[in-house]
Amino acid sequence: MKLKKTLAKKIEEHRPRTTRLLKEFGDVEVSKVTVAQAIGGARGVRCLVTDVSYLDPFEGIRFRGRTIPETFEVLPKVPGREYPYVEGFFYYLMTSEVPTEKETLEVVEEFKKRRALPQYVKDVLRAMPRDTHPMTMYSAGILAMQRESEFVKQYNEGMSKMEYWDPMFEDVCNLLPKLPVLAAFIYRLKYKDDDQIDANPDLDMGGNFAHQMGIAEPYDDVARMYFILHSDHESGNVSAHTTHLVASALSDAYYALSAGINGLAGPLHGLANQEVLSWTMKFQEQLGGKEPTEELVREALWDTLNSGQVIPGYGHAVLRKTDPRYTSQREFCLKHLPDYPLFKLISMIYKVAPGVLEEQGKAKNPWPNVDAQSGVIQWYYGLKEYDFYTVLFGVGRALGVLANITWDRALGYAIERPKSVTTAMLEEVAGIK
Ligand SMILES: CC(C)(COP(=O)(O)OP(=O)(O)OC[C@H]1O[C@@H](n2cnc3c(N)ncnc32)[C@H](O)[C@@H]1OP(=O)(O)O)[C@@H](O)C(=O)NCCC(=O)NCCS
Fold first, then answer.
1. Which atom of ligand 1 is nearest to the CA of 313?
2. How many angstroms separate the alpha carbon of residue 268 from the centre of ligand 1?
3. Which end of the chain has a smaller Cβ tally under 10 Å, C or N?
4. What's the pTM?
5. Residue 359 — very low, low, confident or very high, per pLDDT cuts 50/70/90?
């Protein structure tokens, strides 16, 4: 595959930079750590390295140096569709080079060969109670496939550290194409009486996902957009950091991704997209058929805050303005579903919530994040089972975190082991007698 050859070349070119930094500049200080950071989730401590994406607090995410609109613009598009191939985007994330159409299609074809879900995964999932959360099923499905790991096989045979990235890359390319298939299988198992739809050999990753979900066009484009937007948000967020942390023990891609997905399943992280929809539905129920107004939205938001809960879909640990992933999805809505009542309500919340959060004065960022806008699109295209939404996030997130752990192996990143201190030690540092 040209993807693998390009990656090998990029790795060779990159390695001396990391080696030089370590050898000649290892003592240079990057960041200080305050008491608040030690207690408060290491917020803002600069101690992770990734070149796959960078998150500027005001500008938002750049994938390999490009903004979201630039990324969509530059990548090869599926003929007749609005959004690029997810496979081409993966090539780009992995190598930083924009693939040609031919290079993209080579990945599309290779991924088709690798996407079939093993029978035992289906058996495992069918054995689980049907009311199991789809994120649990998704994580379990990934973990069940760990026996396939090439990395483990080659590690057990004895392999040089310099070669680690190669079987990691193979694991990633075996796992990634199966994820949308796994997600669609879980969806049909849980919500459609296990009435499964076979893969269509003519379709790319996004197209086949829509097909196996049983949702018509333009849901294929929704899937492409969604997977790309949710792919990567640098390394410190819970799902990316967990995947990296677990992989740092030389655990393979299956172990690492399954762990990262478990982190994504938390309500302060990926599950917020489910929470946004459930909040909105409850609000509509309370209205009992009345037209929503800004005043009613404001009251409901205050009720949520006053009962000690967070407003889902708003705020961010790093961002300090509207998330461009929110904006990108909003633009999709403005084009495809401008008059849809639920979209209008989501827009009304966008108008009111930042002011409410500012008035409350706690959140450092009152603006919406990616999760505030994603559910309404799914709902519009008929995917109303909102506890499934985080699985979609989890398929997208895999693109970024799997690219990252391949590079972790290529650059020989160490096992993670930050140091802890006791509360008494912090008190001593603080000068408390
Ligand atoms: C994303 C999030 C976890 C970031 O947390 P953070 O970095 O600690 O955020 P802040 O530094 O702004 O938090 C300061 C305070 O504001 C509160 N706050 C932040 N966002 C809030 C929100 N959307 N609603 C209510 N309160 C919020 C925090 O809970 C915290 O309160 P505390 O001092 O009582 O503990 C937080 O904004 C949040 O819970 N948002 C809602 C869930 C969500 O949308 N998650 C998806 C993120 S992509």
1. 44
2. 8
3. C
4. 0.96
5. very high
Question: Is ligand 1 within 6 A of the CB of residue 206?
Answer: no
Q: Does residue 159 surpass a pLDDT of 90?
A: yes
Question: Residue 433 above 90 pLDDT?
Answer: no
Q: What is the pLDDT of residues 132-144, one digit of tens each?
A: 999 999 999 999 9
To test the pocket of ligand 1, the residue of 362, 371, 393 to mutate (highest count of ligand atoms within 8 Å of its CB) is: 362
Ligand 1 contact, 363 CB (< 6 A): yes
The finding on whether 313 has its CB within 6 A of some atom of ligand 1 is yes
Catalytic amino acids?
Answer: 269, 316, 371
